[in-house]
Automatic annotation (TrEMBL):
It is a multi-pass membrane protein. It is found in: Cell membrane. Keywords: Cell membrane, Membrane, Transmembrane, Transmembrane helix. One of its GO terms (cellular component) is plasma membrane. The keyword Transmembrane helix applies. Belongs to the DoxX family. The chain crosses the membrane at residues 68-86, 93-110, 122-138. InterPro entries: DoxX, DoxX-like_oxidoreductase. This is DoxX family protein.
Length: 150
């Protein structure tokens, strides 16, 4: 379904904005994907230099052995962020990122006892990555350019 079809049946308060919304639909989704990917990449940047550095932290969460999970966390954030930003293997990269963020929800809400206020950012980021698990990278992605999606 095209964006024109999606917006044509809707009654807008300001109908003149229909063309603005239609024209920016894909660009807004692409911007969200790039920002989410760059944010994840930036978060992983500090970990990739020492991929085993978080071994104690992940073991503290119950993930043993930390020497396995710590590099996996580092690679998911660093390389997953790059993949999401450029839109290559978008769905599996977003799925991995979503799982990491759901673990942080558990960590902040339950383990740390911070409740919603401690887990709020992780919940929002989980939802963003869930969006890309379902939607993929859109037409402005490497996935679309090579004509293959996961």
């Amino acid at each position: 379904m095209s964006i024109a079809t999606e917006t044509s049946g809707k009654r807008l308060f300001i109908p003149a904005l229909r063309h603005v919304y239609a024209g920016l639909h894909d660009s807004a989704e692409t911007l969200l994907r790039i920002v989410a990917g760059v944010a994840l990449f930036t978060h992983g940047l500090g970990k990739i230099g020492d991929p085993f550095g978080a071994a104690g932290m992940v073991e503290g969460l119950g993930f043993y052995p930390g020497t396995f999970w710590s590099p996996l966390l580092s690679f998911t954030e660093f390389f997953g962020g790059i993949l999401i930003a450029i839109g290559l293997l978008t769905r599996p990269a977003a799925f991995a990122a979503m799982i990491v963020l759901l673990v942080t929800v558990w960590f902040h809400w339950v383990t740390q006892g911070q409740g919603y206020s401690g887990a709020e950012k992780s919940i929002l980021w989980s939802a963003v990555f869930f969006f890309f698990v379902i939607r993929g990278g859109n037409r402005h992605s490497v996935d679309a350019k090579i004509g293959r999606e996961f």
